[in-house]
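Q: Focus on the chain.
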Amino acid sequence: MNNNIDISSEDILSLLKQQIDFLENQMAERCGMKLYKSADGFTQEKIYEYAGAKDCVATLTLSQESAEVYGESLTVVFVYYQKDRMALEKDRMALNDISNVKAEELLGELDETLYTQLLKDGIPTKDIVEMLVGPASEENNTYGSSLLRNPKVLEIPFQSEGNGDDIFFMYGALCHFIADGMELTPEEHNEYLAYKMVLEREKLTEKERKEIFDENGAIVNQEVGYFWLLWKKDTGKLTEKNKTDLMQLSQNRLANRFGIADKELQSMGLSFEKLVKSYPEKAALLFSKIISFHEHRYNVVGKHLLYMSFESFLHIYLRHVKELAVENQFGERSKFQLAEKDLKVTMDIVLGTLNDEYQTYKDEHPDNRFFRKGNMAYYYNGDYYDVDILPDGQIGSFYKRIDK
């Protein structure tokens, strides 16, 4: 009796392949990842199911044609316009007749031309033969979820020097901006003049002197005087007259801000009086924000200013922050899925990421507004954001794009 079993070379190769696939899947799972293979490529449906829906990082192995362009391996996150996500959420097969999928390369291994090509035109889905997919982000940060977003933040503690010593750091930073050809915000400009008056008074230009002093050498620029007196307060050097002047300037600043805020409320069919009577908690929050507000810049590189003015703050917070919204102003769907405390972080991330694109656009169109709207709305943390930046660099609007 012959107990020998004939095994073909094809059978051996098949067994080896199965064993290799098993071991590779085991290794991926130990790292919290999933490995998917398809010699014929993947459909849009499967790419979205495996990685796109939850914004997972995916390392792709490419077949020969695309490998010649991008290399054999790419680490990416897939990119979708809002209309595409909406279509896929309704029907996972909705985009299966589209041959390419857009992606953002994450490791900086592509030159600028190929990076832009991948982002704009995408890569043939048939050329993706393997996908090693990382763990999904938290469920409540995915598109379509109604839960509040939790932006991922690395907090770095910062402590003031005190005794007025912060002036050296702050003045140095503003001088650095100017030396690099960067525009200052109006508030930064006044701080710069105040600090220069303290540290390098002899280097004030004639133009700067005229902006600060009258013909008798008295400070007539209220904003510069305000920051100068704040510094004196930090150093403990305020005279009795200084204290009176600082109190008056502070009152003037607040009166001006409350006047601007009241006009903004009136444009929404409200007033401070109505807000205080009908929504005291919201009024208290708004008052605290008005009192503590400082202009905030988003570009620390690039000469074109990108910042939140007081007017920007009012426009965005009064219309789109739930904690300040009253009587369903502008509709519930236009509100951020963010706690008020998390909006600043989200704007920092979105606008900081857009800064390179913004700077390039402003180099070519210095007098134009900058938009990221509609199909170009910026996707972050489960939501799409419409962004409008005015010609002078102020944020004109920033809000969650409504599903349509």
Remarks:
- The mean pLDDT is 88.
- Residues 152 and 345 are 9 Å apart (CA to CA).
- Residues 240-267 form the longest helix (28 residues).
- The first strand starts at residue 34 and ends at 37.
